[in-house]
Amino acid sequence: MTTPKTPVAEARTAFSDAGPATANPPASPAAAAFAAAYPVRPVPAPGPVDTAPIAATPAALEELDSLWQAVVHETRTRGNDIHLPISLAFAERLCRAYPEADALLVRVATLLHDTGWAHVDETRIISEGFAGDWRKAAIRFEHEKQGCEVARRVLPALGYSEEFVDRVCDIIDGHDTRLVPHSLEDALLRDADRLWRFDHAGIALASSWFGMDPATYTDRLAIEIVPELITQAALDMATADLDRSNALLKTAVIR
């Protein structure tokens, strides 16, 4: 007996017919430029797409170690020590699928994007950041601003240029709250930030934030999160991971 799949196919169709560029018109020159450069949604992948379990290809172990060490404090809040490494591994896969992207920019922005959660009121993170219309919650904007402060504090001391830091901050500042991406690198960070949720470790952690059992949460992933994915590579990875996670967690039965 096989585990029935969740409605990824329906979500894929809805995304293809009316993606973010249609539902949310570009609000800035950068967003408009990205939409013009990548008019097809989801964005086709020119490079190889790896849909194997993410644990098979963890993020590079040494190149960014000094940056990880600089933000250890920031990884101890809101499960960042699980969320950030898994998101970075997905980001590296996405960079291989989209070799025209600035891989270093994507990797650094992904590593740092949620570090701001360590510098907001922790008592408000779950109650405001993961409840109601959470995408518009004030604390979401706060953690983005604080994430930029972390980036500006740690990156120059590690040899990153001011221009590079500005590009990192442009991605971090808005990754949850801005409707559309400003660049391919921005899009890859956004997809990586969502993809970790489809892995069984992400489901175990994030479902508790939303007060959902795994079956309800995986249904939500298929219906709400899959249509938000910007790239075809991310869509393929999410579909494969969601099928595996549903089978592993027996969500067709335990609900």
Would you write up a description of this structure?
- The structure is a single chain.
- The chain is an all-alpha fold and 255 residues long.
- The chain has one domain (61-249): Hypothetical protein af1432.
- Helices cover 57% and strands 0% of the residues.
- It contains 13 helices and no strands.
- Helix 5 (80-97) packs antiparallel against helix 6, helix 6 packs across helix 9 and helix 8 (138-154) packs antiparallel against helix 9 (162-172).
- The longest helix has 18 residues, at 80-97.
- It is globular.
- Residues 1-24 have low confidence and may be disordered.
List the helices and strands and how they pair.
Elements: H1 8-17, H2 20-23, H3 29-37, H4 65-70, H5 80-97, H6 103-112, H7 122-129, H8 138-154, H9 162-172, H10 184-195, H11 200-209, H12 214-225, H13 232-249
Summarize the structure.
This protein has helices at 8-17, 20-23, 29-37, 65-70, 80-97, 103-112, 122-129, 138-154, 162-172, 184-195, 200-209, 214-225, 232-249. It has 255 residues and is mostly helical. The chain has one domain (61-249): Hypothetical protein af1432, CATH 1.10.3210.10.
Question: Which features would summarize this protein structure in a list?
Answer:
mainly alpha, 57% helix, Hypothetical protein af1432, 13 helices, 255 residues, 0% strand, disordered N terminus, single chain
